[in-house]
Design brief:
Blueprint lengths: L13 E5 L7 H4 L7 H17 L2 E8 L3 E3 L4 E3 L8 E3 L14 H13 L4 E8 L4 H13 L5 E5 L18 H14 L2 H5 L3 H6 L5 H8 L7 E8 L6 E7 L1
Parallel strand pairs: 1-7, 2-6, 2-7
Antiparallel strand pairs: 1-9, 3-6, 4-5, 8-9
Helix pairs in contact: 2-3, 4-8
Length: 243
Amino acid sequence: MLRRALPSAHVLTAVVFVPTPPLLVPELVGCAAEQTQALRDACLSAVGTLAEVSNSWVAIGAYGTDLELGPDARGSWSSFGADVAVSLGPNAHTAADPALPLPALVAGWLRAEVAPQAAIGLRLYARDTPLARCVELGRLLGEDPQNHALLVLGDGCTTLTEKAPGALDERAATVQDEIDHGLSTIDRSAIVGLDPTLCSELGVSGRVPWQVAVSAVGDGWRARSLYCGAPFGVGYQVATWVR
């Protein structure tokens, strides 16, 4: 059962959901940048909501294991084809990590584009984190008085078309509809109800961070969907939740 996690002293004000495709970075897609402009613009606009709230953001995503990275973390998109440097904070001085996880690269790139002065604390959770643990992690996030702005990184199904990275899976459309509905309307039951095994089979990378995020908010929020689509057979949703 999902616990409500919004006590009266809660200060979490804005939650933003973005996907993690490398195609967001124009240098990586070259002449195809125009084809991804709508998604890029939506992500930049959504992250602008966080910048209006705070210069200190918490970002969450999924990874092979639990991992925390601070504003000193630096990396590059070089392994994806372009040596575009990124960092999670404005004063990062550590050596660039050539294996910085994809959610960190996306978070760092968005930060630099929208709010270069912002600093991000990134928390990556294991992809197989069970629901009960997600709920507890979300509750703790929601009750932390230092958390005002939350950036949530994750993709939907990668199996929506024949040419999708995971090829076509007939089950994906229904699951993606549930994801899109849940994120665009703050239907917490839809997100909590996502099946971990099925999501794994359909290539959904956002299941864990989404379940954490919905467990960090309570009542009194409004949602806005800025982008919903699957241009390359992968489900992308960009949404803002504001209290």
